[in-house]
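User: Second chain of the day. Same drill as before.
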Amino acid sequence: MKVLIIKLTSMGDLMHALPALTDAAKAFPGIEFDWVVDEAFAEVPKWHPNVRKVITTSHRRWKKSAWQTLTGGELRQFYRDLNLDGYDAVVDMQNNLKSALVSKLRRGPVYGLDKESCRERPAHLAYQYPITVNPQQHAVDRMRQILSKALDYPLPKTPAKYAANFSKYPLPELEFALPERYLMFVHNASWLTKLWPINFWQQLVFQARAEGYAVLLPCGNNEEYLRAQQIASVDPMAFALPRLGLNDIAAIMHHAAGAVCSDTGLAHLAAV
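Assistant: Same format as last time:
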C-alpha cells in the first residue's frame, strides 16, 4: 500500500502525526508513505521508517514573491511532483486552508476532515472523503483517528509510538567536547509571552550543575544565541549551541539525560 500524507507545518504538529504512521504500519506491513511538507521542516517526516519520499512546498517564500513563483516554474514543478505517483489513498492530516489548496492541486479524491471537525473553513470543501473526529482532544489522538478512518483499520488502544530513529544521525562537530551527562534547556519560544526569565534559567543551571549535569542550550537565530550565551555565562559547563539543523539537534537530544522546555517545537522533539 502507498499513501500520500499532506501535512505542511509546523514542527510540533508534524511530530504529532508520526504515531499515526506507526499504527498504519502495524495494520499494513510494508506500507509506504510519501509526505508533502514545508521545506523548512523536511527532515521531520524522514525520521519515520515508513516514509519513502518527501515532497516539499515553499509557502512562505512563494507568498513573498508571488509573481516569480507563478512565472519561474517552481510551482509547475511542485504540481508535477505532487501528481507523479499513484496512491491507494491521499490524506490531508492538516486540514487548514494551506493544506486544502495542496489537496486541490492533487488529482483524484482526498480524505480530510468534515465541516464540523475542520480547523479552518472552508477547507473541508477540498475533500471528497470527509472524516469526523472530535477536535477537542490531543493532536496525537486526532492524527491517529484521521488515518485509521481514512485507511479503514481499527484504532489501536495501545499508547502512541513515534517509531522515530535518531541513532542513524551522527553527532555534529562542536567547538567543545560533548559532556557525558547533560540536559537540554530549550529556552526559546515563538512568542515573547512564552519566554521564561533569563535569571530563572540561570538558577536552573545551578541546580543542574549541583546534580552533576552539564547544560546545552540550542538556538534558532542570532537573538536566541545571545540569550543562550547569557544563560550559559553563569557556569563553564553550560554551553550555548550554535544554530544547527533539526537532524543535528535530534542527534544531540537523543543522547541527553533529559530536557526542560518552553512551549516550542523542540519541546515536542524532546517528547519524540
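The mean pLDDT is 95.

User: Great, on to the next one.
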